[in-house]
Design brief:
about 85% helix, mainly alpha, flat
């Protein structure tokens, strides 16, 4: 049981990292901008939803977690399909907690940088 809980918190890290990078970071901005445009302009609803997936970290984390479940065969509490179901939603939840904490930390760092720049301008 301890190994499962440790695995849950460790597996959620790359899930959060992948979902955050695709939905927020500058390195894939062009891809995300295309997806954002197509998520509002495609004619079919399934096309719009598919492209929206790459703009929402919460939505994308479900699919990234599913891929990780396929790769790792990680199960939580039960040795059958119920273990996959519980593990999937648990991984998504923990990954989203990580992303929320990361977003808060980034906001604090940005706020501190702005305050430092304001102080530097005031000194000059």
């Amino acid at each position: 049981m301890t190994f499962q809980v440790l695995s849950l918190f460790l597996l959620a890290l790359p899930i959060a990292s992948i979902a955050w990078t695709i939905t927020h970071e500058e390195v894939v901005r062009e891809f995300r901008d295309v997806c954002l445009g197509k998520s509002t302009t495609c004619r079919r609803i399934y096309e719009r939803k598919f492209f929206y997936l790459f703009t929402c970290e919460y939505c994308l984390s479900h699919y990234v977690a599913a891929v990780f479940l396929l790769i790792t065969r990680f199960k939580l509490l039960y040795p059958d399909w119920r273990g996959y179901l519980i593990a999937g939603f648990s991984l998504v939840w923990v990954a989203n907690v990580y992303m929320s904490l990361f977003a808060r930390i980034r906001l604090e760092v940005k706020r501190e940088r702005v305050q430092i720049k304001q102080q530097e301008k005031g000194v000059e």
